Amino acid sequence: MARTAVLGFPRIGPDRELKLALERFWTGRVQADELRDTASRLRTQRLKAGQLAGIDVLPVGDFAYYDHVLDVAELFGIVAARHRDSDATDLQRHFLACRGAAGIAPLEMTKWFDTNYHYLVPELSEGQRFTVVADSLAKWTSHLHEARELGIQGRPVLVGPLTLLTLSKGVADPVSVLEPLSVAYAEVLSALAGAGAREVQLDEPALVLDQSSTALDAFEHAYRTLLDDARVEVSLTTYFAGIDQAALERIQMLPLAELHVDLVRAPEQLDCVLAHLPDGARLSAGVVDGRNVWATDLDRALDRLERVVARIGSDRLTVAPSCSLLHVPYAAKREQALDDELRSWLAFGDEKLGELGLLKTALEVSGGERDALLADHRARIASRRASSRTNDERVRARAAALTPGDYDRKMPLAERHHAQSERLQLPELPTTTIGSFPQTTEIREARRKRRAGELSEGDYLSFLQDQVETVIAAQERLGLDVLVHGEPERNDMVEYFGEQLEGFAFSQFGWVQSYGSRAVKPPILYGDVSRRGPMTVDWWRYAQSLTKRPVKGMLTGPVTILQWSFVRDDQPRQETCLQIALAIADEVGDLEDAGAAIIQIDEAALREGLPLKRSDQPDYVRWAIDCFRLTAADASAETQIHTHMCYSDFGEMIEEIARLDADVVSIEASRSDMVLLEAFRDFAYPGQIGPGVYDIHSPRVPSVEELESLLTLAEERIPRSQLWVNPDCGLKTRDWPEATAALENLVQAAHNRRAAVASLR
Ligand code: GLN
Ligand code: ZN
């Protein structure tokens, strides 16, 4: 008989209890004990839910106060020198690495593969040694014990050594230290065996990346060391993409008890995986999507599972979610504000546990017995497939009628540039901001009151109008050239649009961890997307009525809306993206009709959507850029289209950025001293660029001299006729005093540079 397993649970808490407990602890309102109790309660709750659902293998040690990668780094003594404060308690030192302190930078944070979860980047030092830190190991042993109290034989989970090193920085060739690290891992396995563990799960998602054969050699070698004499069974876990044959050939040589593969993201790998399974090893088949919120098509999952059973027998099969459930919310059944139909299409964490159990049972039966078992499920899948909400004829016809020319602006960039200069009459080195102004407590409070019904729609609107007036007046005072309305009406750049589009729903409790104590509630994009009416025009018009200077219309691009939502899985992502693009294109048209001379379409997340495997990237880049182009294609030549992207590694994407065919692109650049602009120079980028000169991620106010010198560096790389002067992202997380001070310096720096130009002539 097959068994079921869970690779990891969400940990933020169904009502974000962990967030609250952490924040209370950080501000000194509660003691460490209370934080520990909350955490233990949250873990116990999950284990009990797993137990109740009859799951055979439950994880322990997957929980982390802040980040599971950090916990494993600490386990092996990978601690940056600046975080080794000897006076602090262990927990204080732990949070120092997460959050920093005055004069002490925290660890860098970056995305966990292609998810929206962020981990802390471990910092190795040259000559790094690895020791097993007993106090850190206690997390795994005590969680094992905690599970045992509930009658559960938990399976400890650790990020594996290859992945840990792949994600670290500080050593030129991290894989070179894989061997000594695996010796330390072997020690941990033996300690876990001593603590009663029978099997251990090592997460190696790095195995799905493009790995060199040298790296794979090192991996195989290291795992031999690690598994040699191991007194526990080891389950090697991969997810987020398929494993290439070259990697499978190494895996096949290892004495593993189990290999886990992601059959949601990469079902096509199944045959190759089955052909390369280590002798006698189990296959853990990830057939329930651990990254999305939809009820599983159980028949399709059973097809896959039956292929496994036919090959290796059900005793060697583990039925599992594709990856840890960290990336999905807790329970769809709580979402009583969603209509019954939509709710029946969903499966969050709890529902996924139920699906695992159902799959295991269904494998044992056939015919009428199986039909009876799956009847309810099949009805839900069928209702979703047939619903008019997922099949809007109008939307589909419009997408189907697109022709290649529909993605192009009618005039080439250079001619548009001319037409726009005539219309806008901007000075050289025009100054602007990226869109949002500080989201003050006052704004958040007003939003909360509006939601709670304590503020009438009319009062809320006039409050927002006041905010827009303040923002416009401030920008005029500062002397910025191109203004924004400040986005006070938006709590989030995706949610704001999702709420006004058909095809999106919003959960009440659908929180997922973004990093540490932060959680996000992504919109659920369930159906065909269309616009009910103009979404931003009134705000733009109001803002423009207050000033003679141009105000930018401000939109979120289709790829970013897609990327930051839970996206329907019943059609390719690119089709969904195209529908969003058409809706945004309509909005561009309405803004133009209202008189907007400049429209910014933010694609903050364009880069994030890049698939993990190089071979999958060109296809994504093609359709993502096409979708952006579609939003702007109908804009007239005199309408200036801006886009903004919040990342900075452009070397590899410069041609794609050019292909966006935006008139002006603003990017993050301040932290790299404009070096990244080399790419734009080498490529002779045709459009205009606003390299962010003010780093809005820090409260520090850059001086005029500093900004001027960044601009000078930029001018050395890009003709000044192509340069704009702006911060590197929106100002929503900043305070007014620091934002104003920084913008004042930014405008002054631009003026100084203009004067320098003039005096040269
Ligand atoms: N226009 C948005 C803002 O200024 C862009 C945010 C982003 O790039 N993340 O807030
Ligand atoms: Zn940004």
Strand arrangement across the biggest beta sheet:
1-10-9-8-7-6-5-2
Do you know the CATH architecture of the largest domain?
Answer: Alpha-Beta Barrel
Q: What small ligands are held by the chains?
A: glutamine, zinc ion
Uncertain ranges: none
**Any idea what the shape is?**
globular
- Coarse structural class: alpha/beta
Strand content: 5-15%
State mean pLDDT (0 to 100 scale).
96
Helical content, roughly? 40-55%
* Total of helices: 27
What about the largest sheet? 8 strands, parallel
Using only C-alpha atoms, the radius of gyration works out to: 27 Å
Descriptive notes:
Helix 11 packs across helix 13 (349-364), helix 17 (441-451) runs antiparallel to helix 18 (457-478) and helix 22 packs parallel to helix 23. This protein has 2 domains: 3-327 and 334-386, TIM Barrel, CATH 3.20.20; 428-436 and 477-758, TIM Barrel (Alpha-Beta Barrel). With 761 residues, it is α/β, with parallel strands linked by helices. It is 44% helix and 12% strand. The chain starts with a strand and ends with a helix. The mean pLDDT is 96. Glutamine is lined by residues 434-436, 487, 493, 554, 602, 604, 644, 646, 729-730, 732.
How does the SSE layout of this entry go?
Layout: E1 3-4, H1 17-26, H2 32-52, E2 59-60, H3 68-75, H4 90-99, E3 109-111, E4 118-120, H5 134-149, E5 155-159, H6 161-166, H7 178-194, E6 199-203, H8 213-227, E7 233-237, H9 245-252, E8 258-262, H10 270-275, E9 282-288, H11 298-312, E10 317-321, H12 340-344, H13 349-364, H14 367-386, H15 393-400, H16 413-424, H17 441-451, H18 457-478, H19 495-498, E11 501-505, E12 512-515, E13 518-520, E14 524-531, H20 537-545, E15 553-556, H21 558-563, E16 566-567, H22 573-594, E17 598-602, H23 617-632, E18 640-645, H24 654-660, E19 664-667, H25 677-683, E20 688-694, H26 704-717, E21 726-727, H27 736-760
Parallel strand pairs: 1-10, 2-5, 5-6, 6-7, 7-8, 8-9, 9-10, 14-16, 15-17, 17-18, 18-19, 19-20, 20-21
Antiparallel strand pairs: 3-4, 11-14, 12-13
Helix pairs in contact: 1-2, 3-5, 7-8, 8-9, 11-13, 17-18, 22-23, 23-24, 26-27
Glutamine binds at residues 434-436, 487, 493, 554, 602, 604, 644, 646, 729-730, 732.
